[in-house]
Amino acid sequence: MSGSLRRIFALVMRHIHLWSGSVMRIVDSIYWPAVQMVMWGFLTQFLANQTTYVGHAAGVLLAGLLLWELVVRGNLSLSIAFLEEMWSRNLGHLFVSPIRSWEMAAGIVIVALLRTLLGMVPVSLLAWAFFGYSIYTLGLPLIAFFVILQMFSWSIGLAMSGLVMRVGQSAETFAWAAVFILMPVSGVYYPISVLPHWLQVIAWGVPTSYVFEGMRSILAEGTVHWDLMAFAFGLSIVYLIVGFQVFQWFFRSSRRAGSLLGQGE
Fold it and tell me: Which of 57, 116, 229, 241 sits a CA distance of 20 to 30 A from 149?
């Protein structure tokens, strides 16, 4: 195992040990997605008897919720992994060690992926147990949706983590709220066509809108638009590269300003 892989592995194991020593960290990964799923699940059951569209496209709201939670959990899990280092005043210690900034970024991305899976797999099973709906009926496109949404959520998480690293914990609010700004233009619970034209232009610039349009197309029409998924995948890669470069830029700026060692509670 190369030096870089050992350092990334060590970062990942540090967070796994944190989880194993704190039941509340594990519960937090499952609690909020589960609450959202139950709330929207009962709403879906009600609307299924009232709305033709929802009745024909069974599970459209639950599927939208579960896929959106992938974005939220991916972003928050990455942000929390980074903030754990700040809260414990460990950021300066990490960067006086041989670890490089890109290795830390890779480590917290892996931690975010593990934490998202830890939270969302049980919640998807709860959706099946409570409401008889399985997100896995989306089939192979679900893998594409997962990859696209995770990469996009990491891009936001990396950019926001870099901002917090440079500005300090006064910017923590942005780490929690950034992803929700995109919810209205992602078409989570409604088609992009209902948005004003100028908002539609913005919506088609983020990969989440393609995923949710694709999800509705599968549930309502049984059609998979692989061309749109390929475009969304490419768009997510671009955003991930930009998010990583923003993280790197803020890191270099923090190092020049000498603020890394002073970060923490």
Answer: 57
With a cut of 50, list the residues of the chain below it in pLDDT.
Answer: 265
> Distance between CA atoms of 152 and 26, rounded to whole angstroms?
23
pLDDT of amino acid 89: 75
The pLDDT value given to residue 251: 86
3-state DSSP of the chain: CCHHHHHHHHHHHHHHHHHHCCHHHHHHHHHHHHHHHHHHHHHHHHHHCCCHHHHHCCCHHHHHHHHHHHHHHHHHHHHHHHHHHHHCCCHHHHHHCCCCHHHHHHHHHHHHHHHHHHHHHHHHHHHHHHHCCCHHHHCCHHHHHHHHHHHHHHHHHHHHHHHHHHHCHHHHHHHHHHHHHHCCCCCCCCCHHHCCHHHHHHHCCCHHHHHHHHHHHHHHHCCCCHHHHHHHHHHHHHHHHHHHHHHHHHHHHHHHHCCCCCCCC
The whole-model pTM stands at 0.81
Q: Put residue 133 in one of left, alpha, beta given phi > 0 → left and psi -120 to 50 → alpha.
A: beta
Two structure tokens written together for 198: 């100028």
Residue 68 near residue 36, CB atoms below 8 Å:
no
CB 55: neighbour CB atoms within 10 A? 12
State the pLDDT at residue 170.
64
